[in-house]
From TrEMBL:
Membrane topology: Multi-pass membrane protein
GO CC terms: endomembrane system; membrane
Major localisation: membrane
Location relative to the cell: Endomembrane system
InterPro entries: ADTRP_AIG1
Alphabetic keyword roster: Membrane, Transmembrane, Transmembrane helix
Name assigned to this protein: Androgen-induced 1
One Pfam entry name: Far-17a_AIG1
Lineage, opening ranks: Eukaryota, Metazoa, Ecdysozoa, Arthropoda, Hexapoda
Species for this entry: Lasius platythorax
Transmembrane residue ranges: 7-30, 50-70, 90-110, 130-149, 161-179, 199-216
Similarity comment text for this entry: Belongs to the AIG1 family.
Length: 239
């Protein structure tokens, strides 16, 4: 029954994020003269935004979860985890959880301070409220729920953090490439910061993202730590 429930959760999550991406790339449209006109010199479309990168990550992750449901294992502490399970564990620990929480928390925090810094009110007629919640709220809900319903073995911190920091640096470079080619920052908040404050802002965000990695590891230990201990003891007794 647990296996069926896990598979259903993963399938529904995959469908949600596949639909979100479909809508974002094929239906989401900002008319000429609106916010996106600023990117007329160079516009990579929805791939400008870290939010969309994260939705892609979540879709890939839940596809991996489904593959693991059928070809891997959801055992608490498998002796020899198959490739699908290893990939799932690495993905969720290093990218799935911390990036989703980073996007969700920073977006809603900036919305609370001044929504014009991240999602100008002028875009409301073109950006549905439900799409906003799929991209910025649901990502946190599903990644936390996944942590509760299915166990994982966290990778070595050096590897997990290495993957996370590398991903964030790649996006940071991409954001500067967009600025170099278009003369416009992807996020309006960058326009109100001086160069030293931007550097400090990026450093704080990277630090926050790293903290979220440790938060995910801690939450996983709280939820599954006792189960891992029980299974290790049972393996030891069987020997």
């Amino acid at each position: 029954m647990t296996q069926v429930f896990n598979t259903l959760v993963h399938l529904v999550s995959l469908v949600i994020y596949a639909f979100t991406l479909h809508y974002a790339f094929t239906k989401l449209y900002f008319p000429t003269g609106s916010f996106d006109k600023k990117f007329e010199n160079f516009d990579p479309g929805q791939l400008k935004y870290l939010t969309v990168w994260d939705v892609i990550l979540q879709a890939v992750f839940f596809l991996i979860c489904l593959l693991n449901d059928f070809y891997g294992t959801n055992a608490v502490n498998p002796k020899k985890p198959p490739f699908a399970r290893k990939l799932k564990d690495y993905f969720h620990a290093s990218l799935g959880f911390p990036v989703a929480m980073f996007v969700g928390v920073t977006f809603w925090a900036l919305m609370f301070v001044d929504r014009e810094l991240v999602l100008p009110k002028a875009l409301d007629p073109y950006f549905p409220w439900w799409l906003n919640h799929l991209m910025h709220t649901m990502i946190m809900v599903t990644t936390v729920f996944e942590m509760i319903v299915a166990p994982r073995q966290y990778p070595k911190r050096s590897r997990g953090l290495g993957i996370l920091v590398s991903f964030m640096l790649v996006y940071l470079i991409w954001m500067h490439v967009i600025y170099y080619k278009s003369g416009v920052w992807v996020y309006p908040v960058m326009d109100v910061l001086t160069q030293p404050l931007r550097i400090l802002f990026f450093a704080v965000l990277l630090t926050f993202c790293t903290i979220l990695y440790f938060l995910g590891e801690t939450l996983n230990n709280i939820v599954w730590g006792n189960e891992h201990t029980k299974h290790k003891k049972s393996h030891a007794k069987s020997k």
